[in-house]
Amino acid sequence: MANLLAVSLLYIGYLLIRGLIARHIDVGEAINRGEHLSHLERDLHLSFGGALQALMMDIPLAIPLLNAIYIWGHVPFLIGELAWLYLRHPRWFAILRNGLILSAIPSVILYIVLPTAPPRLIPDLALVDTVAGPNHSDYFIQPEIFANHFAAIPSMHVGWALAAGMAAFLAMSGSRWRWLGVAMPVAMTASVMGTANHFVLDWVIGCTIAAACFVAAWMWDRLASSRAASDDSSPIV
Length: 237
Known about the structure:
Elements lengths: L1 H21 L4 H17 L5 H9 L4 H11 L2 H14 L1 H24 L42 H16 L8 H15 L5 H34 L4
């Protein structure tokens, strides 16, 4: 349980730093950067967040589902998976834990140097903030002290969902249920766009960081295991 407690404390520290960064952000600059990002996506033909939200608005219960995925599919889901891995697949618990810790470092750096407004805060896009709208709770499981509304780059909602999905897929390598590991990052991608919380490039960057750090943690684990096996097989002189 000490490992789980350590991970929880580290994550609280990450949230505190992320929240403190928000107190020193130039809001106008962050909004301008978000506008430039929206123009870049339009030029790259990646500007389909608005179309996705409009489609979801026409499907009964789609928006409440996307809101639930956005809220409960991040921290609560990660805590649940880490607890499951800790009990059933301790090797993959360690790999996922280390990957998440590694990925938090470049993420915080980007939040500091590239504060960016999400689509929901760009007036020209005319998108709806479905999570914090009048009919929804405003991040009720996250105190305001942890909030940073200009931490669009990178989207670690999607990035960490991908890392968790990779860990689940590999931990259940012999099970037909391993493909459930693919479902969470796909669902979270739809959620962050349908709720107007992230641009396409936000989650692409987040996935790149999270996947690279997860693979680095995995390679480190394999190297450590091979060294341990080599030491065990060495003859005693």
